Amino acid sequence: MTKLYLVRHGETLDNVNQIMQGQTQGMLTEAGRQQALQLCERFRNEAVDAFVASDLRRSVDTCAIIAQPHGKEVVQTPLLRERDWGDFTGRFIPDLKGLDFPENVESLDALKQRAAEFLDFIRKRFPDQTVLAVGHGIINKAIQAVYYQKRMPDIPRMMNAECRTLVL
Question: The pTM is what?
């Protein structure tokens, strides 16, 4: 069995400003760095074999802070990227309420397919290991929906720097 600690990145400037980040890099706030440091302390004495992050800066930075005491490199994968929000990317989230999704927003089916590919990647690359992976709110929700075989609305929202455990 592989144990997967699934983490959402720390708070970013765009989180604070309610901007739809999607697949933009993002930058941690000081609060986001502190959240990552709290997770670093939580996992300091935990035997973690591998650290994996989305290839977006906010996740890589969060993961690197958590991984630092372990002296391990962060493996980056685009499979953990946030949902591609297409033309909604960079927009003020409250202004999007009630609008139809643009055609270039990543579909839920495509997102869940990517989530399934991520779980397969973890199982194959890290069999019988403990992995801490830092992703994003919506992709993490899709990963859990695939894992638990539930609808995405049935998965509770993850807060910044929240961690959930899956056994693969």
Answer: 0.97
The predicted-structure confidence for 106-145, as pLDDT tens digits, reads as follows 999 999 999 999 999 999 999 999 999 999 999 999 999 9
| Residue carrying the six token digits 């986001």 | 32
Residue length of the chain: 168
Contacts of 99 (CB under 8 A, 6+ apart): none
What are residue 51's phi and psi, to 5 degrees? -120, 130
CA torsion 63-141-49-37 (nearest 10°) is 30
Taking only the tens place, the pLDDT of each residue in 8-28 is: 999 999 999 999 999 999 999
Could you list the active site residues? 9, 82
Q: Is 36 helix (H, G, I), strand (E, B) or coil?
A: helix
